[in-house]
Amino acid sequence: MSDAGTNVVWLGSPTFPRAASAALANPQLRRNLRKATTTIRDKRLAATGELDDWEQLREAGAATKRRVLRHLDRYLLQLEESVTRAGGIVHWAADAAEANEIVAELVRATGSDEVVKVKSMATQEIGLNEALAEAGIRAYETDLAELIVQLRDDRPSHILVPAIHLGRAEIRETFVHEMAHWGRPAPEGLTDEPRALAAAARLHLREKFLRAKVAISGANFAVAETGTVGVVESEGNGRMCLTLPETLITVMGIEKVLPKWQDLEVFLQLLPRSSTGERMNPYTSTWTGTTPGDGPQTFHLVLLDNGRTATLADTTGRQALACIRCSACLNVCPVYERTGGHAYGSVYPGPIGAILTPQLVGVEHAETLPFASTLCGACYDACPVQINIPEVLTHLRAKAVAARRARRRTPSGEALAMKAATAILTSPGRLAAAQKAASLGGRAIARNGVIGPLPGPLRSWTDARDTPAPPRETFRSWWRRTRPQHPSGEQR
Amino acid sequence: MRIALFITCFNDTMFPETGKAVVTVLERLGHQVEFPLGQTCCGQMHFNTGYRPEATPLVRNFTEVFAGYDAIVTPSASCAGMVREHHAVLAEESGEAALGRQVAAVAPRVHEFAELLVDVLGVTDVGAYFPHRVTYHPTCHSLRGLRLGDKPVRLLRAVRGIDLVELPAADSCCGFGGTFALKNAATSTAMLGDKIRNVAATGADVLCAADNSCLLHIGGGMSRLQTGIGTLHLAEILASTEGDAR
């Protein structure tokens, strides 16, 4: 792992299967997730279905991202030059610790001990808020859902909708009990009406916007050609942070660079339609360095690696770096819909998290994540930049198995079983013998032709499912018995 | 046309009736089916669980056994997908150029049963009779892997006597996922529960699909809950005629 401060995986989290079991037993969570994912799914289908050229847009987005990843070194240097020319200052951070140190130092230099934040996955990933707190700097999340999560001392459970696991009654409770510790308290008699909750958040946040001298943001993209950095959002709170304070510090993963301004044409269509199911997102903010008398007068861009270069070296796995954080894959994932995001134990949940997290931290530190999928392929179909998530999942499964093999002195039970299966399945004769044994054994434990609950390792199958007893005669036996006139193939 | 049947190790052991049904339908349509006895397994379980080196010998066996046939038919969308999409990957990783060439020659000739009927043989009415209420679950590998689209449903619509009813949220995964069902049993069961709820809501007597593995999972849950709803592979419905007592 790059360093202990990282939030890519939450230290001490249980494995996915364990955490998922706990989440599945929470009916409130199941209800919230079902309702939210179904709503966003339908909206996305409507917003993508109305475009005749949606598939071409996906292809264009994927092609641009492929090009960026192939020539990432060049585009990053070009970006540094463009940003510097426009009056910004570029910093390079190899890992989370370095990025946190750079940001803390930059804030300290302004003399401020607080910052307002635009919703950002990159700063979540590096655990920036915690690092700033250690440096005596208070970071205020201003995205409504991130604010809720921060007030509760909770963790985000979705890339786009971090509080998707919460209902409005829980949000009201949080506002009533926690807002006062962070600034302006919730109004007297606050109800759980969405309008009332939004108004309470607005009052609470406004005093922070007007006071803050420093803002921290992430970035949805940065244009190498012009040095323009951009954030898309729905609330306008991001724009408050991006325009009011004197100093703006942006932390951006190095894969977010785009070659040309014109490329935004594609991504500003792909992103909102895939994420919120809107034709356009309400607020698109772009800035190029600094402008005297307008907006922040000091702009820092921190370019974050934190495992990305290592991911880039894997030509199959690197597809994960094309992600534009739309979260369409989460919303269509049948696993995510039922377990929610916390089960993934990472700031990046869902299908994209299952392929990104293990690569950023090393597959041995997140080895159950590539297996947290049925390989149903819904994510691949939904992905606006055509990331073949099932392909990367099976690729990472192979890496996880290889890593386990290298680590263990003796093979695992699963490895032995797989080896035995190969030995049986490479010989039709051995297969026939194994089938005979399975049929005899299966029929011996069956009652009325059905195998019920069993103890031992097969419990996880038989606990919820009956299994028919295997038939007396396999297909190949039937064929040999009934069709001696077709001796196709040789028995070996 | 020389048509070979790839029964798959799973159907061979657990669902021989499905294989017999494929043979019945193809012979009824006037085709001769061969069954190469050297066949075993496509290696899907190994591949999807991360045991790639263990899957490669199975790729080798598959390409040797099925070389020379014009068409290879299999009553499993996920095994067809494994051969067509992933055998080339394994051949490449093995570094054996000859294996790569063999895979390139054999893999494209592998067809899932509905694909063979509709795309290769150009048939949708196979002369079947099945007087029951049926709902069809498009398995993930048939829907998003092989992109079978409405081919299975077109075949079912042409069956005489059938009462074909639509399955709500049909395109949602049933939660099987091979070893996923063991490694993530709780999540698998949660998905299974939702699938069963939707199947039961249709009032169908029979749930049909193009993969017996998914049907083993859904049918196993339905049996445990005593729903009384049966499962049948598409081929078995298409093989049924007036003379059958189903």
UniProtKB/TrEMBL annotation, chain A:
<feature type="domain" description="4Fe-4S ferredoxin-type">
    <location>
        <begin position="320"/>
        <end position="387"/>
    </location>
</feature>
<dbReference type="Pfam" id="PF13183">
    <property type="entry name" value="Fer4_8"/>
</dbReference>
<keyword id="KW-0411">Iron-sulfur</keyword>
<dbReference type="InterPro" id="IPR017896">
    <property type="entry name" value="4Fe4S_Fe-S-bd"/>
</dbReference>
<dbReference type="InterPro" id="IPR024185">
    <property type="entry name" value="FTHF_cligase-like_sf"/>
</dbReference>
<dbReference type="Pfam" id="PF11870">
    <property type="entry name" value="LutB_C"/>
</dbReference>
<feature type="region of interest" description="Disordered">
    <location>
        <begin position="456"/>
        <end position="492"/>
    </location>
</feature>
<dbReference type="InterPro" id="IPR004452">
    <property type="entry name" value="LutB/LldF"/>
</dbReference>
<keyword id="KW-0677">Repeat</keyword>
<dbReference type="InterPro" id="IPR003741">
    <property type="entry name" value="LUD_dom"/>
</dbReference>
<keyword id="KW-0408">Iron</keyword>
<feature type="domain" description="LUD">
    <location>
        <begin position="78"/>
        <end position="290"/>
    </location>
</feature>
<dbReference type="InterPro" id="IPR037171">
    <property type="entry name" value="NagB/RpiA_transferase-like"/>
</dbReference>
<keyword id="KW-0004">4Fe-4S</keyword>
<dbReference type="Pfam" id="PF02589">
    <property type="entry name" value="LUD_dom"/>
</dbReference>
<feature type="domain" description="Lactate utilization protein B C-terminal">
    <location>
        <begin position="408"/>
        <end position="481"/>
    </location>
</feature>
<dbReference type="InterPro" id="IPR009051">
    <property type="entry name" value="Helical_ferredxn"/>
</dbReference>
<keyword id="KW-0479">Metal-binding</keyword>
<protein>
    <submittedName>
        <fullName>L-lactate dehydrogenase complex protein LldF</fullName>
    </submittedName>
</protein>
<dbReference type="GO" id="GO:0051539">
    <property type="term" value="F:4 iron, 4 sulfur cluster binding"/>
</dbReference>
<keyword id="KW-0249">Electron transport</keyword>
<dbReference type="GO" id="GO:0006089">
    <property type="term" value="P:lactate metabolic process"/>
</dbReference>
Automatic annotation (TrEMBL), chain B:
<dbReference type="InterPro" id="IPR004017">
    <property type="entry name" value="Cys_rich_dom"/>
</dbReference>
<protein>
    <submittedName>
        <fullName>L-lactate dehydrogenase complex protein LldE</fullName>
    </submittedName>
</protein>
<dbReference type="GO" id="GO:0005829">
    <property type="term" value="C:cytosol"/>
</dbReference>
<dbReference type="Pfam" id="PF02754">
    <property type="entry name" value="CCG"/>
</dbReference>
<dbReference type="GO" id="GO:0016491">
    <property type="term" value="F:oxidoreductase activity"/>
</dbReference>
<feature type="domain" description="Cysteine-rich">
    <location>
        <begin position="134"/>
        <end position="218"/>
    </location>
</feature>
<feature type="domain" description="Cysteine-rich">
    <location>
        <begin position="3"/>
        <end position="83"/>
    </location>
</feature>
